[in-house]
Amino acid sequence: MTRIIAGRARSARLAVPRTGTRPTSERVREAIFSSLDSWDAVAGARVLDLYAGSGALGLEAASRGAASVVLVERNTKAAALCRANADVVRRALGVKGEGLPVTVAPHSVRSYLSTAGDAVDLVLIDPPYDLGDDDLAQDLDAVSRLVSPDAVIVVERSTRSPEPRWPSGVEPLRSRDYGETRVWFASPETEETVAEDDAPTITGSTET
């Protein structure tokens, strides 16, 4: 079991798949959302959670006031768990029926991205560590065509993996290490970032 860390559904307990997925630890999830909240990137955002697993990342965003959340998970059992966890968060928020704006898309990430058309403000990507770098690069290229100008893209990878190959028009903001996990933050380039493309990327570690 895991839990929602903050927001209106704080402490709501979520089930996680027994096999086949690698849930983001509460420590890493808390760090990710601390950064996102400091940028005001969650409240009112249209959120896309790719390789959703249990849906914990997207549902954390829903608890913190996201306008809408899409959980993309092709594994049948995990997608069913996403729906069940969305119901848990719905009850914690006191929302009846379909009032919680969370949609579960039981498709592969590539298939979903090939047909998606609505702009999104926050993309959470936590793929299996064995997802190839080329596959991730293709996902990011498709994502870059969906994001709004002020969007934030979050990628969670192993510290042994190289930096994601960011598509043209996407600028890495910073990375953080948490044990064996590295989290990358990126955003669409603006005129300012293009003008300052020689500025160093901020990196750091919270390794203890």
Brief overview:
The chain is an alpha/beta fold and 208 residues long. It has helices spanning 26-38, 56-63, 76-93, 109-115, 133-144, 191-195, and strands at 2-3, 13-14, 46-50, 68-72, 102-105, 120-125, 147-158, 170-178, 181-188, 202-205. Strands 5-4-3-6-7-9-8-10 form an 8-stranded mixed sheet, covered by helices on one side. It has a two-stranded antiparallel ribbon with strand order 1-2.
Shape, please?
globular
Instruction: Tally the structural domains.
Output: 1
- Overall SS class: alpha/beta
Give me the Rg, rounded: 16 Å
Q: How much of the sequence is in beta strands?
A: 25-35%
Would you tell me the overall average pLDDT? 89
- The CATH class is Alpha Beta
Instruction: Spell out the helices and strands N to C.
Output: EEHEHEHEHEHEEEHE
Strand order of the largest sheet: 5-4-3-6-7-9-8-10
Query: How many DSSP-defined strands?
Result: 10
**CATH superfamily, called what?**
Vaccinia Virus protein VP39
Q: Spans with pLDDT under 50 lasting ≥5 residues?
A: 193-208
Distance linking N and C termini: 24 Å
Instruction: Write the CATH fold name.
Output: Rossmann fold
Describe this structure in words.
InterPro entries: DNA_methylase_N6_adenine_CS, RNA_MeTrfase_RsmD, SAM-dependent_MTases_sf. Residues 186-208 are annotated as: Disordered. It comes from Labedella populi. It is a single chain. With 208 residues, the chain is α/β, with parallel strands linked by helices. The chain has a single domain, classed as 3-Layer(aba) Sandwich (Rossmann fold). 30% of the residues lie in helices and 27% in strands. It contains six helices and ten strands, in the order E-E-H-E-H-E-H-E-H-E-H-E-E-E-H-E. The chain has helices spanning 26-38, 56-63, 76-93, 109-115, 133-144, 191-195; strands at 2-3, 13-14, 46-50, 68-72, 102-105, 120-125, 147-158, 170-178, 181-188, 202-205. The strands form two sheets. It has an eight-stranded mixed sheet, covered by helices on one side. Strands 1-2 form a two-stranded antiparallel ribbon. A hairpin with a 2-residue loop joins strand 8 (170-178) and strand 9. The longest helix has 18 residues, at 76-93. The protein is globular, with a radius of gyration of 16 Å.
